[in-house]
Amino acid sequence: MIRLSLSLGLAVLATVTSAQAAELPAEIKQAGTLKLTVNSTYAPMEYRDPATNELVGLDIDLANELAKRLGVKIVWSETPFAELIPSLQTRRADFVISGISDRASRRETADFVDYLATGPQFFVMADNAAKDATDLCGNKVGTTRSTSFPVEIEKWSKQNCEPAGKPAIQYVPGENSIDVRNQLKQGRIDAAVQGSETLPYAQTQEPGKYRVVGEPFAKGYQGIMFRKDDAALREVVTEKLTAMIADGAYKAVLDKWGLGANAVAQPMLNAAPQ
Fold first, then answer.
1. What is the pTM of this model?
2. 272 and 5 Cβ atoms separated by less than 8 Å
3. Per-residue model confidence (pLDDT) at position 49
């Protein structure tokens, strides 16, 4: 199923990008600016540097490089994660690059150009006795409510806990990844789930505090999200991202943030399997 989705995504994208060079939409070109909004609580993808209060992260670097190649400036704004999709649909944002996963349910009104491999992963406080993921059956596990992770946790629990005669995982919602980690530190939950791309950073920021349990238990992609009727913008951004992968600029950004292993070989259109 995953292989079929990838092939389909690549085939569709090849069709889109094989035509003549894409053009930046006239209104953006004339304004000379891109309006982008992020949820700045998802380090290392996007966050406020505590020392400078500057907006930084992998997505910020990728977007800035894309804008440079498009010949425009970015006007950044910030919003809660749950407001990212509405910000796109109401045109407060021209596109969204903010740690958002490509999901089939989101494709009803948007297209995703997938640019980073991801997957949900369990983690606990370092002194937790859990040795593997099945030790978390029956435990309270927190994650951000507006992500795909609650569904993935429930699915994993049904496949791995109940068939073994163990109690189901008890899902506990959180507002964002910072809130979830705080709940974990306060002992209100036993374990947590975040995207595999965020955990190495969290561990470096609070050395010795967290321990990852098992491998990512689902596979997906983060994508740049576009309105369905903005094919021209999607195509020109895809063209520039393809060039960044080819000339090494994409790899340099991922390596800077310690996420070279999450790279994709080329952009893919709506390729995530879920």
1. 0.81
2. yes
3. 95
